[in-house]
Here is the input.
Amino acid sequence: MPSYADSQRDFTEPGEDLPGFCQADTVVMGCGNRLLGDDGFGPAVISYLRDYAPVPKRAVLLDAGTGISRLLFDMALSPSRPRRLIVVDAMRLGLPPGTVSVLPLDSFTPDHTRTFAEHQEPTSCLLKELRDLSGIEVTLLVAEPEFMPGEVSPGLSPAIQRAVLKAREIIEPALVA
Amino acid sequence: MSKTLVIQPVTRIEGHAKVTVQLDDAGNVSDARVNVVELRGFEKFCIGRPVEELPRIVTSICGVCPWSHHLASAKACDAVFGVEPPPAGRKLRELANSIAYTEEHILHFYFLAGADFILGPAADHSIRNVIGIASAVPDVAKRVVRSRHLGARMLEILSGKSIHPVAGVPGGFSKALTAEERDKMLPMAEEVLELAKFSIAFAKSDVFPKYLDAVKTLGVIKTGFLGTVTKDGTLDLYDGVLRMMQADGTYEEFPCDKYTDYIGEHIEPWTYLKFPYMKKVGKLSMDLDNPVGVYRTNTLARINVCDRIRTPLAQKEFEEFRSKFGRPVQLTLAYHWARLIELLYNAEYAVELLKSPDITSTDIRVPVKPRAARGVGCVEAPRGTLIHDYETDADGIVTNVNLIVGTTHNNAPINMSVKKAAIDNIKGGKYDQGLLNMVEMAIRAYDPCLSCATHDLDGHIPVEIKILASDGETVAVVR
Here is the structure.
């Protein structure tokens, strides 16, 4: 879920025009539903970074949950946008469970575009539009899920728990770059 | 050879859906269905938990309308415990509801449906999107982003959290509003009201007139309507009686805890989403020429069933709308117009609530004690009537849960409107992206939120149009 509250400490103060994630240098959005097993990978990465990674003030971490598109809508309409956006999600690519990959948007074939959109197709469209039309540097950081339940079942598999640690190793240098 | 056309995903709706359009041998539409995949197990997940935890848990169903779930759940808990919140506690809940509504309706008009109207349904797919809006009307885009930001800020001040709220508790509200906070919020609410006033004026002058023909024809079906009103028939989005209106305008009212007497649930094998229908009619038929038992919820339904609106500017718009279109209005695209009336109402009502003297009262909550009981909580969510039905044992542990979310009520009419739009726009096997977008527009009018009930675990995207031949072979797929 798009957590304005979680990001409040990084937001603009009252009276300023736009949300903080539109004005930050780097934004990291974790996508997924914590109620659905490994689909909670993205939010788990955000929680872990908040607890253990040094996050500079110019960076914003957002638990976007299943509602990333509405954050991207705001970002797309905003006259001010971040320089860099890192989207973290669980994605089936047929790799060993827990494999963490950094994928540029251009690596997506139409089929991959479909696969990427675990949450909403417009997300993939919007990410490309943000990159192509707004000049935002967009990076996708994905992990191969092991446990994607058909019913509500919170909790990450051991493979995805390890993937959270790997994701930190990749994201942390980008936050300070 | 007949064809089947599948639209997957339907872009710019919340959640996932696939539209399948079956063509006959002449290339005309013989059938159309909207398929969704339901998120299963949430109700089961709630069983065995202390009922007071549910208002916090249900906000994790999805990130789209957490406040509606939160408040419906808090009201169901009130009923389980047999209590009524103090007036100030109720007002704080209503204030949060109205602010959340403004965020949602702004999102829908400008982001989700706006591209259809501002850029036109036939505009190239590459520009008929949010970036296209930002380029076409940059000043409006900035106001929109700022107003949504103000909404989020107000909810944070009011309750500490905008998404995943926790402030609504059994018996009332957990946090009083200080005078300082009220003074901080009031100018924000007034600014959102200005955008609401601008939005409906802009739509009436620059948007709707251009598409009046589409409004009068696209996806038009004849159904009943469901919405919540006060005892004197005033529109109420937080509390009241449910008014079920027939297509001829006659209606009956019932308290929300009697919903099972009035609403049945039909099942089709081709979708996980149930089809609620008017139970007293005895059956559901989605036949376009002779529908039976079908009703709609969401903005147009609420504007149809109510007799008046409590705030002056929205009441004026309501009178103009009714004078122009009559009652009940069956035009599917009129949902957008009705949505803007509700945006104005909620923006006005938020200001009104902030100005009420007791909004800063600290008497906002009554104590509760667990008991074996059933409690039904109902609110009007932006996308339709939302019902939470809980049962508990003597220790207050949940033993049964049933939820009917707003979009589910509209399942049958969405299918009917899509079929109607497909019939009207796809003829002789000819179609293009603009025509297919007209089919999608019929869905978007309902502002469906499938996230509550859907999550495509196979990772498929929300909408695709697939064309199948009469022998069932896929001829083309349009995304």
